[in-house]
Amino acid sequence: MKTTIALAAGLLSVISASAFAQNGAVDQVRADNAAIRHDTHEIRAERRDIHHDSASIAAEKRDIAHDKNVINMEKRDARHDQRREDALVAKGDLKDARNLDRARRHELNEAKIAARDVRHDRREIAIERTDRAHDKAALADERAERRADVAKRNHDAGRIH
User: What percent of the chain is predicted at pLDDT more than 70?
Assistant: First the structure.
């Protein structure tokens, strides 16, 4: 009789322990699922940010290309004005030559300012590209973390059955 009671008590304790272990595993799987959902949300937000950064970088590159074309046109106009000025000096019309010289210098100054702006924009793009690369690396780390969480969750779920 004592053996039967001890055996029954032992059996009940094993059954309750396994049920308790399954409850703990179920809770662990639920917690893992919540963490995975959170990580997935963060990863999607990071992807959106990276896509937005890429779009803004592309737009700035287009602006720089446009500014370079404007600079080249201004320089071409300045060279044309220089030839006209030289022709006026050869004819002896110094007053008009001075006016053309003033206009040419003004155009060259504008081209220089535009070139400085282009250089500044290119530096900004380089900084943004570096930031985007760091964001991509962080995204890769988050994805690796999520894969590890999924593997842990799958392992915990395997212990339930």
Answer: 85
If one compares 26 and 136, the residue with the highest pLDDT of the two is: 136
Q: How far is CA 37 from the centre of its chain?
A: 22
Cβ–Cβ < 8 Å for 132, 4: no
Pairwise CA distance, residues 73 & 92, whole Å: 28
**Of the candidates 146, 160, 156, 154, the residue with the CA atom closest to the CA atom of residue 37:** 146
Class for the domain spanning 2-160: mainly alpha
Say what the pTM is. Answer: 0.64
Is-contact 121 60, C-beta < 8 A?
A: yes
Distance of alpha carbon 130 from alpha carbon 53, whole angstroms: 11
At 92 the three-state DSSP class reads coil
Query: Roughly what angle, to the nearest 10 degrees, separates helices 2-91 and 94-160?
Result: 170
Give residue 30's pLDDT band: very low, low, confident or very high (50, 70, 90).
confident
